[in-house]
Specification:
Strand order of the largest sheet: 1-3-4-5-6
CATH class: Mainly Beta
Radius of gyration: 14 Å
Strand content: 35-45%
CATH topology: Tick-borne Encephalitis virus Glycoprotein, domain 1
Order of helices and strands: HEEEEEEEEE
Largest sheet: 5 strands, mixed
Number of helices: 1
């Protein structure tokens, strides 16, 4: 399982296991700038919960919305999955902190911005910058 060291699975692992279906995953490819609503990964429902940006074959940026604890603010977790690397050898590289509303990070040539949070999810803008 491609998971972090906590009790929760990455959205990528949930997708691989069939716990997220196609309507819950948004894929970005060959686009320069798009905006997506991404719902908290831990909620039940059919809204998108995982945003994937294909960098090259086998390498993807993943964005998911998390709530670290019950009363915490929602934040976007950004990580890169390199499926060419074996599971035990560290195929996932995650940012060290969540991205909160009105903030941006540049990650592997993409600016990822948390535009607005409504308590259930976030509007995420992704823009190719290089």
């Amino acid at each position: 399982m491609m998971s972090n060291s906590t009790k929760a699975f990455f959205g990528w692992s949930k997708f691989l296991n069939g716990w997220l279906d196609g309507v819950q995953v948004r894929c970005v490819s060959n686009q320069v700038k798009t905006i997506h609503y991404v719902e908290n990964l831990d909620t039940i429902g059919d809204r998108p919960k995982l945003l994937l940006i294909n960098l090259q074959e086998g390498v993807t940026i993943s964005v998911e919305v998390r709530q670290p604890y019950k009363l915490a603010e929602l934040g976007a977790l950004i990580y890169k999955v390199d499926s060419r690397i074996n599971h035990g050898d560290g195929p996932i590289t995650a940012e060290s902190s969540l991205l909160y509303q009105n903030n941006s990070k540049v990650f592997d040539g993409w600016r990822i911005s948390a535009l607005k949070s409504d308590g259930e999810g976030m509007l995420i803008e992704v823009e190719k910058v290089s």
